[in-house]
Write a structure and sequence with these properties.
Layout lengths: L8 E5 L8 H11 L3 E6 L3 H11 L5 E4 L5 H15 L4 E4 L13 H29 L2 E7 L1 H4 L5 H21 L5 E7 L5 H7 L5 H10 L10 H12 L10 E4 L15
Parallel strand pairs: 1-2, 1-4, 2-3, 4-5, 5-6, 6-7
């Protein structure tokens, strides 16, 4: 299916993670569809990713940006807009489950909100004049933590809850401009960060097996390619009448009856 993403300027934050991360996978798939990825990330790894894309004949830009700094975000969006003269999609993907819990300081909690939620607001705010012109759309990457809780991660949970609130609020605000706003909600997905985290736990292999057993569909984790597939479809005009939605890509982890997991 042609998703009609060719030459669409897609601003994507948090796409300079390690190879195999959700952001890097989405970035790679955008390039495969012929979209123009405009990457906003603080990690210099983004330069290499964009150079590789450019060598494949696809236009792209990387703006190294600390997304906790409002001025840097404004500068990045301005740089992208000046180069291309348009923005068709904002895909907010920044997310760090940073373990900022109730024992954290005020400053640590606020820093978590700035990274995981406020950056979403600021990127959309500065891109909005261009989204209005293109009748573009917004896609926010969310987490099941916003709905289920996790423990010991107040900053991340509050941020991801806020991201869902913003998704619906923007869907309402932007109806008059034909701009869609949706969120993808992820539960358990195997990424380099997940691999690093699970290895910090005692008896990590046993813990991993217990997590996977709780994923109803096929008792396996969601792949980053499966997440990217849903993201690309949602931002495309093949999903042209979908807005204000929370789309779960989680193998039934959040909603399906726990009795499915009962061992016989």
């Amino acid at each position: 299916m042609d998703l009609h993403l060719k030459d669409k300027v897609v601003v994507i934050s948090g796409a300079a993670g390690k190879e195999g991360s959700i952001g890097e996978t989405i970035l790679r798939r955008l390039a495969e569809e012929g979209a123009i990825p405009a990457v906003i990330d603080r990690n210099a790894r983004g330069y290499g990713y964009v150079q590789k894309i450019q060598k494949e004949g696809i236009d792209a830009i990387f703006c190294q940006t600390d997304v906790t700094d409002p001025e840097q975000i404004e500068k990045a969006v301005d740089t992208i807009a000046k180069k291309y003269g348009r923005i068709d999609v904002v895909l907010n993907n920044v997310g760090v489950n940073d373990g900022v819990g109730l024992d954290a300081t005020y400053e640590e909690f606020m820093d978590s909100l700035k990274l995981n939620m406020v950056s979403y607001f600021l990127i959309v705010k500065h891109a909005l004049p261009f989204l209005k012109k293109s009748k573009g759309n917004i896609l926010n990457i969310g987490s099941k933590v916003a709905l289920t809780g996790q423990g010991r991660t107040s900053g991340y949970a509050a941020s991801k809850g806020g991201v869902l609130g913003l998704t619906r609020e923007w869907a309402v605000d932007l109806v008059p401009f034909g701009i869609r706003s949706n969120a993808i909600i992820i539960a358990e997905s195997w990424t380099p960060s997940y691999d690093t985290w699970i290895k910090t736990l005692p008896d990590s292999e046993k813990k991993l097996k217990s997590i996977v057993k709780k994923i109803p569909l096929e008792n396996r984790m969601t792949t980053t390619d499966e997440i990217a597939d849903v993201c690309l479809f949602t931002i495309s005009d093949r999903s042209s009448h979908t807005t204000g939605q929370f789309i779960f890509v989680d193998g039934g982890y959040v909603h399906l009856d726990r009795s499915l997991l009962t061992e016989e």
